[in-house]
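We treat protein structure as text, and this decision shapes the records that our systems exchange. This encoding replaces a full spatial description with a residue-level series of whole-number codes. Below, we set out a record of this kind in full and without editing:
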Amino acid sequence: MHLDATEHGDSLVFLHAVKEGPANQSFGLQVARLAGVPKMVIQDARRYLAELERRDHSARPDAPQQELDLAPAPDPTETAVLAELAGLDPDALSPATHCRRCSS
């Protein structure tokens, strides 16, 4: 999923629409500008990006960008611990109860 956006000159305009799939391009430099990154840093990054794109353009196939899964795989240990915590009643616990649970 991504927020639909378009470029207007050097500005980035978010269109307030959430769309399925990856964005058709990266807006990292525009977002950096919106975040207040100094203008010289963005200009240097833009020149570096242009050089990388010139070098890699012929080696890169014209395939759409793949969307990465941002959710990490569930950790079985974490899942078990969370399930046990969900079953506890904090008001019914005491230090003695805690020590008995740890020793078993």
Summary: Strands lie at 2-8, 11-19. DSSP finds four helices and two strands in the chain.
